[in-house]
Amino acid sequence: MSVSNSETAIISAIKNRWSGRSFSEQAIAKNDLLTIIEAGTWAFSAMNEQPWQVIAAHKGTETYDKILSTLMPGNTPWAQHAAAFILTITRTTLSKDDTTLNGSAEHDLGAFNATMSIQASAMGIITHPMGGFDRAKAKEIFNLTDTQKPMAVIALGYLDSAEKLPEPYKTRELSPRVRKPINEIIIGHE
Predict the structure, then answer these.
(1) CB 98 within 8 Å of CB 189
(2) 135-165 burial by CB neighbour count: b if 16+ within 10 A, else e?
(3) Are the C-beta atoms of 23 and 160 separated by less than 8 Å?
(4) Beta carbons of 84 and 76 less than 8 angstroms apart
(5) 52 three-class SS
(6) Residues 6+ apart with CB under 8 A from 88
(7) Contact call for residues 86 and 70 (beta carbons, < 8 A)
(8) Which of 1, 60, 66, 180 registers the highest number of CB atoms within 10 A of its CB?
């Protein structure tokens, strides 16, 4: 994996964050997984609602297998080797009355997920967030309410060799990471 086209001085935990697919057999310590989740709680959130919830599981547990069963077929071949999964859920209503929609809930969960991923990167753990999972099945398996919306499954683990991956995952793992140039992102600046 190589990084290309960085135009500014980005801190390494962000620049090196990578959605790898090749996971080693090394387990993630329970305390390390809790540290990653707690880091997420320090993300910004509208009105300090902190609408995030998670279901976390280490490989070899029933909960891990349940989360794995929700993944789309394109994610299962590589994700099944992850050391842990975190299913991230957003609470769609405000806590004050549980009926008023929180228009920032999904945005805030994205910040939570990104903050967890940066913490994991700083710890040498790769994260691979996936939208490719069956949300209805996850809701059913974990008895989520109508106000709990499953948004992503994050696979976590330590990086292993890309050579062990089948195609097309091996090629994806070895392709350079490229980000759009900043002048394509900024549409207004003074």
Answers:
(1) no
(2) beebbebbebeebbbbbbbbbbbbbbebeeb
(3) yes
(4) no
(5) strand
(6) 52, 53, 54, 109, 112, 113, 150, 151, 152, 153, 154
(7) no
(8) 66
CA-nearest of 154, 159, 173, 162 to 71 is 154
* CATH T-level fold of 20-174: NADH Oxidase (3.40.109)
Q: What is the pTM of this model?
A: 0.90
- Residue whose pair of structure tokens reads 């060799």 in the numeric block: 161
Q: What is the CA radius of gyration of the chain?
A: 17
| 106 or 5: which leads in pLDDT | 106
pLDDT in tens, 31-63: 999 999 999 999 999 999 999 999 999 999 999
Neighbour tally for 109: CB within 10 Å: 25
What's the mean per-residue pLDDT of the chain?
Answer: 91
| Biggest CA-to-CA distance, the chain | 53
